[in-house]
């Protein structure tokens, strides 16, 4: 079992009567690339802000590296962050800004600044003032700040905002490298599903402050892959028939009236015929396969 | 905390405020020394002195200039973090809000007061060297005048720090800090014109910032000095309270 890096328990944040985060539960394991997926205003940033101490939760708890409360706050030096827009001193260069944070973190090996800048392709702009940076460059400097000193956990809020396609692709490789080669855990939020899908291994769907689902990439692939959806009033009997009569075990009971069959060899006609012969009332049967976007929309609708 | 202070020391030299502060100090003191004048500014009553008052003690009595000069470092160190939204970088991955506040308070207070002490003593020695002993007081006299002012100046800096954490925005901080002594004096003078509030106005004018700084330097009375020290202590406690709670209890943007 992997070590748990972050675990939240009914984490709640209210602003007056507005609930920005509603009883959120999530578990992030060591070396995960954990994708937070949600629309704008879904509660992704609030969740990150609570975990990083930028705001206090109004309910629930969270454990960071197995520690909670003030002990968790002491683990901050193990975190690298980029929350909302990258913020640095405009009158200072990229190098000076990173040096300022190196001094703050007590990093004595200043060669790490060059290493971080190289990783985000900003070596040539190291002596350029931050206020002269383009949006993409600012974003990359924010990522360089987050990866300074090889933290154990990196939290990035919408890191691909403002990046060009090549930059996005390079960043994806960087994330994988950080996770695989350095054993760093990453939590990345985005409202662009395809981008998170390309890099993350676990996902959290969030909307209206509520966690809709926590799912692994394998499970997500399965749920989005081609399947046959059977609608019936007796899913138990239908499941038994699938296993005993057709030797199909690769299926999932979605609700009291719906079963999804993922077996590649399963055929609609055969299924329909077998269920009918076993006196199971089939009210609908069709092939399905949803895109990530449709999958997410479906969740939001149901919520 | 020590790391944060080291980092701030590195950053302060990169701000415009740092150079502006020392440029103004340099120009002001060069003029004072060249013209053998007290210099400075005052909002209260004109400086009461006899002919024997040395120009360096007179300059200390006019140290109200530092009320405005001390806005620069506080603005650069604290408001700069708010206006650039860089506080979240430190809080999210380095230090707790409580320790951040303590570090900033210690550094801002330490740096600002060090600059104030350094500037004053640099002036004292430069004046003594250039104008000679005839225009200079003894080290003890100068230090006595200067250090009677010190608690009040510490209270002013503490108040600025508290206000910077409370107001956050640089524009709001500058407006409040610059305009407050002027509004205070104007209000006191307005009350002075009304016969029923004349006594209140006199009290207000006695404890007006530039008046307090002048009187403390010129050693008015021990009773007055003690009262000023009590006021300074209360301001420090109040500003610490305001700054700490307004920073730790509010969400960072």
Summarize the structure.
The complex is a heterodimer of chains A (303) and B (253). Chain A is of the alpha/beta class. Chain A contains eleven helices and 14 strands.
How would you describe the overall organization of this protein?
The complex is a heterodimer of chains A (303) and B (253). In chain A, β12 and β13 form a beta hairpin. Chain A contains eleven helices and 14 strands. In chain A, the strands form three sheets. In chain A, strands 6-7-8-3-9-10 form a six-stranded mixed beta sheet, with helices on both faces. A four-stranded antiparallel beta sheet of chain A has the order 2-1-4-5. In chain A, strands 12-13-11-14 form a four-stranded antiparallel beta sheet, with helices on one face. Chain A is elongated, with a radius of gyration of 23 Å. Chain A is 37% helix and 28% strand. Chain A has two domains: 217 residues, Rossmann fold (3-Layer(aba) Sandwich); 78 residues, 2-Layer Sandwich (Alpha-Beta Plaits), CATH 3.30.70. With 303 residues, chain A is an alpha/beta fold. In chain A, 40% of the residues are buried. Chain B has 253 residues and is mostly helical. Chain B is built from twelve helices and no strands. Chain B has one domain. Chains A and B meet through β6 and α3 of A and α1 and α6 of B.
Q: Which short descriptors sum up this protein?
A:
heterodimer, A: 303 residues, alpha/beta, Rossmann fold, Alpha-Beta Plaits, six-stranded mixed β-sheet, four-stranded antiparallel β-sheet, 11 helices, B: 253 residues, mainly alpha, 0% strand
User: What's the order of the H and E elements of chain A?
Assistant: EEEHEEHEHHHEHEHEEHEHEEHEH
N- to C-terminal distance of chain A: 31 Å
| Number of H- or I-type helical stretches of chain A | 11
Largest interface: A-B, 33 and 25 residues
Q: Quick one: CATH superfamily of the largest domain in chain A?
A: P-loop containing nucleotide triphosphate hydrolases
The number of distinct β-strands of chain A equals 14
Radius of gyration of chain A: 23 Å
List unreliable stretches of 5+ residues of chain A. none
- The counted number of beta strands of chain B is 0
Number of domains of chain A: 2
What characterizes the major β-sheet of chain B? Answer: none
What average pLDDT do the residues of chain A reach?
87
């Amino acid at each position: 079992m992997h070590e748990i890096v972050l675990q939240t328990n009914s984490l709640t944040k209210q602003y007056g009567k507005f609930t920005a985060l509603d009883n959120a539960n999530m578990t992030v394991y060591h070396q995960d690339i954990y994708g937070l997926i949600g629309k704008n205003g879904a509660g992704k940033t609030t969740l990150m802000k609570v975990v990083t101490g930028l705001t206090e939760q109004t309910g629930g708890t969270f454990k960071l590296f197995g520690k909670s409360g003030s002990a968790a706050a002491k683990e901050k030096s193990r975190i690298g962050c980029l929350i909302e827009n990258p913020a640095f001193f405009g009158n200072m260069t990229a190098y000076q800004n990173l040096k300022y944070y190196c001094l703050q973190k007590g990093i004595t090996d200043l060669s790490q600044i060059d290493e971080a800048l190289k990783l985000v392709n900003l070596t040539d702009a190291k002596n350029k003032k931050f206020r002269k940076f383009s949006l993409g460059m600012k974003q990359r400097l924010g990522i360089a700040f987050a990866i300074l000193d090889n933290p154990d956990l990196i939290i990035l809020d919408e890191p691909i905002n403002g990046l060009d396609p090549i930059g996005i692709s390079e960043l994806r490789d960087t994330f994988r490298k950080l996770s695989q080669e350095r054993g760093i855990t990453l939590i990345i939020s985005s409202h662009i599903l395809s981008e998170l899908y390309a890099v993350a291994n676990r996902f959290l769907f969030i909307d209206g402050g509520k966690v809709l689902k926590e799912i692994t990439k394998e499970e997500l692939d399965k749920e989005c892959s081609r399947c046959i959806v059977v609608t019936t009033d007796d899913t138990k009997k239908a499941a038994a028939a699938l296993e005993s009569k057709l030797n199909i075990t690769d299926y999932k009971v979605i609700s009291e009236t719906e079963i999804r069959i993922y077996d590649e060899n399963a055929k609609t006609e055969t299924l329909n015929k077998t269920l009918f012969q076993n006196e199971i009332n089939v009210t609908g049967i069709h092939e399905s396969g949803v895109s990530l976007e449709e999958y997410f929309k479906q969740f939001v609708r149901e919520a | 905390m020590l790391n944060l202070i080291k980092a701030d020391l590195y950053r302060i030299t990169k701000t415009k405020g740092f150079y502006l502060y020392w440029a103004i100090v340099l120009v002001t003191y060069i003029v004072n020394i060249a013209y053998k004048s007290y210099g400075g500014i005052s909002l209260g009553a004109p400086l009461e002195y006899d002919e024997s008052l040395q120009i360096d003690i007179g300059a200390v009595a006019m140290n109200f200039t530092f009320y405005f000069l001390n806005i620069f470092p506080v603005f650069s160190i604290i408001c700069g973090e708010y206006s650039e939204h860089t506080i979240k970088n430190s809080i999210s991955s380095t230090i707790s809000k409580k320790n951040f506040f303590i570090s900033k308070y210690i550094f801002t207070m330490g740096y600002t007061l060090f600059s104030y002490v350094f500037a004053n003593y640099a002036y004292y020695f430069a004046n003594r060297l250039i104008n000679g002993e005839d225009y200079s007081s003894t080290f003890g006299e100068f230090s006595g005048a200067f250090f009677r002012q010190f608690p009040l100046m510490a209270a002013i800096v503490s108040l600025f720090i508290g206000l910077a954490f409370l107001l956050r925005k640089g524009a709001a901080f500058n407006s409040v800090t610059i305009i407050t002594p002027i509004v205070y004096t104007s209000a006191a003078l307005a009350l002075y014109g009304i016969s029923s509030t004349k006594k209140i106005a006199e009290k207000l004018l006695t404890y007006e910032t530039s008046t307090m700084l002048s009187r403390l330097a010129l050693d008015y009375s021990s009773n007055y000095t003690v009262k000023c020290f009590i006021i300074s202590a209360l301001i420090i406690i109040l500003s610490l309270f305001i700054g700490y709670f307004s920073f730790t209890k509010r969400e960072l943007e």
